[in-house]
Amino acid sequence: MSVGARAEQPARTLRRMTSKPAPLASLGDHFTLQQSLEAMIHHFGCDSGTMHRTATDGHLHLRAVVGQFPPPVLDAIRTIPFGKGLAGLAASRRVPVTVCNLQSDQSGDVRPGARATGMEGAITVPAIDARTGDVVGVIGIACVAPRTYSEVETAELLLCAAALGPLLHAE
To answer: Fewest CB atoms within 10 Å of the CB: 16, 31, 35, 134?
Structure first.
């Protein structure tokens, strides 16, 4: 797994989680959002991914990235409004958004920048704060080949988002 450009923030160690979903089980007691995204990419056999946090301005802000993104795409995904692109749709709809093939999708959900990544099978899931019901972030992963994510994989990624939600919120 190659790690491409990283979000512009210090590699801050996050507090200990009491229990971790399977994709995060390989992590030690203290880890960064970047390390958790890398673990999820590896677990699901994907090639790239992003993790965004909902900021006080109501937009999603990039906190971790894995994979090679063209510079214009990386610039575009640094801040995403709710409702725009796959991450923004997952945030506004409050449900996972999946695309089997970003390159040929005709749903209208896929933005041109997503196609520029060269990825095909993608899924984004919201991280929802259990206490407030607020969307505190979004996790997205993608593969270079077409892929349909199973219900089990979707549930696992939602568990990761739920587990990481308090960490995203506390950031």
So the answer is: 16
Tell me the Ramachandran region of residue 47: left when phi exceeds 0, alpha when psi lies from -120 to 50, beta otherwise.
alpha
d(CA 52, CA 91): 10
**What is the Cα–Cα distance from 44 to 17, expressed in whole angstroms?**
21
Query: Where residue 34 sits, what CATH number does that domain have?
Result: 3.30.450.40
Residue 169 corresponds to which tokens in the numbers above?
């919120």
List, in sequence order, every residue forming a beta bridge with 142; answer none if it has no partner: 48, 122
Q: What is the pLDDT of residues 63-74, one digit of tens each?
A: 999 998 888 889
pLDDT tens digits along 107-152: 666 666 665 676 677 899 999 988 889 999 999 999 988 899 999 9
Which residues are registered as beta bridge partners of 98? 123
Please tell me the pTM assigned to this model: 0.84
Q: Is the Cβ–Cβ distance between 76 and 96 less than 8 Å?
A: no
What residues make up the domain containing 130? 22-170
Ramachandran angles phi, psi of 43, nearest 5°: -60, -45
Inter-residue contact 60 to 83 (CB < 8 Å)? no
Q: Is residue 151 part of a domain?
A: yes
Into how many domains does the chain fold?
Answer: 1
Q: Nearest-CA neighbor of 135 among 53, 78, 62, 76?
A: 53
